[in-house]
Structure formats: structure tokens, C-alpha cells
């Protein structure tokens, strides 16, 4: 579980134009797509919130069961399991079912650098009114936060605008794997690989005949 940890996500600048490349330079098409994305982000945010609550409950129950089992075994002198606190099969099963059923236009198939298949959350933010150095992307606990601020002062006038977006990430998302790119027309794309199913560690115990 993450505990009030903040991780800054570097913003890589690209020389390509999203509006030109994907929308034929028609700004209205892009704006319409962004409105749809905002609506889908709001819907998906609620689904992830409910999923995180269920997984949190399942994780705690799994840890509790593992603790009771470990304590019982320790009473019989089995010290080899004293440090075993991995989540049990019920949690892993629920995580797999939830991840398999998580469906959205914002989620696509993903292959990591090791060649493993998975899912990736892909979000976009229109920050075209801000300079690259005015934009920051970070995660705080399980939340992705995009912030931009522009201040400009001149003779008899001042300009101030600020941009804030926040998105709840699925439980177990690794913030170190999140990537963000900024196109030359000011479109920020954030890609976050979704958590993979935790692997179980199998250890065979030899049986000695006396």
C-alpha cells in the first residue's frame, strides 16, 4: 500500500502535433473528443473508486487470514512462515477478475519492455495555454495530479490562469512506470500501465522419512 508518497512524472516534449496528426488539423473534432474523454474519465473514476474499495477490503481480509495462519503455524514451531505476509488467493482472484472486467475507451492493451501483455490507462489533457515549464505531473498516493499555472504582469494589466486535474488510479498502479508526453500543440498525454496480477511464490517442502 502507498502511504502519502509523492512521485513526480517527467514530461517529455514531442515535436509532433496531436491535432494535426490525429484530427486532420480540425480543432473542433479534437475539442469534441476531449469532451467525450472528460465524460468517460468521470465515469471511470467512479468505477475505479468502487473497485479500489473492494480490493482494499479483500486485501485486509487476506492479510488477516494470512496472519492467523502464520500465527497458528508458528505455535507449532514452524518459524519458516513467520515473515510470510503476502496477500492470499482470494485477493489475487478478485484483482484478476476486476482487471479483466475493467473496460473503457481510455484503456488499451499494453506490452511492457519485458514483452509481458497488460493494460494501460491513457489520458489526455489540453494544456495549450501554458508553457512546458509551467506544467507539472505527479502522483500522490493513488491519485494522478496535473497542474499548470501561468502568471503575467504588465503595465496596468495582469493575467493569471490555473489548470488542475486529478484522477484516481487503480490500486497497485506503479507510479514509477507512468509516462507523460507533451505535443507541440500543448496536448499532454499520460500513460499508466495498470497493475498486473501478483505472482505467487511456490516453495516445495521436502518430506523426510524417519
Please characterize this protein's 3D structure.
This protein has 210 residues and is an alpha+beta fold. 32% of the residues lie in helices and 30% in strands. It is built from three helices and nine strands; from the N terminus they run ββαααβββββββ. The protein has helices at 18-23, 27-74, 89-101, and strands at 6-8, 11-13, 107-111, 117-126, 135-140, 143-154, 157-168, 179-182, 187-193. A five-stranded mixed beta sheet has the order 2-8-9-4-3. A four-stranded antiparallel beta sheet has the order 1-5-6-7. β5 and β6 (143-154) form a beta hairpin. α2 runs antiparallel to α3. The longest helix has 48 residues, at 27-74. It is elongated, with a radius of gyration of 23 Å. The protein starts with 5 loop residues before the first strand and ends in a 17-residue tail after the last strand. Mean pLDDT is 79; it is low at 79-86 and 199-203.
Across the major sheet, the strand order is: 2-8-9-4-3
Strand content: 25-35%
Shape: elongated
Which oligomeric form is depicted? single chain
Question: Would you tell me the structural class of the helices and strands?
Answer: alpha+beta
| H/E topology pattern | EEHHHEEEEEEE
How large is the count of helical segments? 3
Task: Summarize model confidence as the mean pLDDT.
Answer: 79
Main pleated-sheet profile: 5 strands, mixed
Helical content band: 25-40%
Q: Which stretches are low in confidence, meaning pLDDT under 50 for 5 or more residues running?
A: 79-86, 199-203
Through-space gap between termini: 44 Å
Number of strands: 9
Q: Mind telling me the C-alpha Rg?
A: 23 Å
Amino acid at each position: 500500500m502507498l502511504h502519502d508518497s509523492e512521485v513526480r512524472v517527467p514530461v517529455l516534449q514531442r515535436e509532433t502535433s496531436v491535432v494535426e496528426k490525429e484530427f486532420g488539423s480540425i480543432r473542433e473534432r479534437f475539442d469534441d473528443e476531449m469532451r467525450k474523454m472528460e465524460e468517460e474519465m468521470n465515469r471511470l473514476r467512479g468505477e475505479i473508486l468502487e473497485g479500489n474499495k473492494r480490493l482494499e477490503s479483500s486485501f485486509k481480509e487476506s492479510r488477516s487470514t494470512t496472519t492467523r495462519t502464520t500465527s497458528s503455524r508458528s505455535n507449532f514451531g514452524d518459524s519458516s512462515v513467520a515473515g510470510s505476509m503476502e496477500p492470499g488467493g482470494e485477493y489475487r482472484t478478485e484483482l484478476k477478475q476486476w482487471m479483466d472486467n475493467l473496460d473503457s475507451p481510455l484503456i488499451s492493451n499494453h506490452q511492457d519492455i519485458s514483452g509481458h501483455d497488460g493494460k494501460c490507462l491513457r489520458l489526455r489533457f489540453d494544456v495549450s495555454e501554458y508553457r512546458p515549464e509551467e506544467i507539472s505531473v505527479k502522483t500522490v498516493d493513488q491519485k494522478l495530479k496535473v497542474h499548470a499555472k501561468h502568471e503575467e504582469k504588465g503595465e496596468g494589466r495582469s493575467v493569471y490562469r490555473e489548470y488542475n486535474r486529478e484522477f484516481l488510479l487503480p490500486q497497485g498502479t506503479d507510479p514509477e512506470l507512468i509516462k507523460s508526453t507533451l505535443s507541440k500543440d500543448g496536448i499532454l498525454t499520460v500513460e499508466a500501465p495498470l497493475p498486473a496480477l501478483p505472482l505467487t511464490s511456490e516453495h516445495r517442502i521436502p518430506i523426510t522419512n524417519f
